[in-house]
Amino acid sequence: MNRPADVSNLSNQFLIAMPGLAESAFASSVIYVCEHSPRGALGLVINRPTDIVLGDLFARIELPLLRAELAQIPVYYGGPVQTERGFVLHDSDGHDYASTLHVAAGLQMTTSKDVLERIAGDGGPRRFFVALGYAGWSAGQLEDEVAHNGWLTVEADATIVFDTPVERRMDAAMALIGISSLSLSQTPGHA
User: Is 191 a member of any domain?
Assistant: First the structure.
C-alpha cells in the first residue's frame, strides 16, 4: 500500500475516513493535510460542498466578482474549526499573499483576503479550492487516530482536489491506495 512509513509528517497527504468514523463529523471525508508537525495538524475536507457558492461568498464580504464564470463554484466545508474563516488551497501563482503556508508540490494555503481579491479580479492562482473552517488535531492526536484505524493515508494528488468532481473524490483518493470503498471493514487490521 502507499501508506507512509512515518506518520510523524502527514503534510501533503490525504486522510480517508474509515468506516469507524461513521458517527463523527468526519464520516465519509477525504481531508487534504496542509500542515503536520510535532505541534499538531491542520487539513481541509475536500469532498463536502456547502450550499454557498463563490458568488454568494464574495457578495457577503463585499468583494465584486469580476469573473462571472466563477460565481457558481461551490465553497466547501473545510472542517469544524473556525467555520467563519476562509481557507484557500491553491497553486503558487508567484504572488506573495499576506498569510500563506507553503504546503508542498507548489501548493499553498492562504487565509488572507488578498488571495480572494486577486481571484475576484483578473488574476490569482489558476487552480484554487475555497473552504470555510478547517480540521485540526493537537500534538499526537492525528498519529493516534491513524494508529487506531481511524484514517487511511496516501500521498495527495492535487488533481483530485482541483479537477475531480466532488462525488468522485473519495473513490479517486482510495484508488491511489489500490482499494475501493466497498472493501473497507470496520474491524481494525482488515481491509
Answer: no
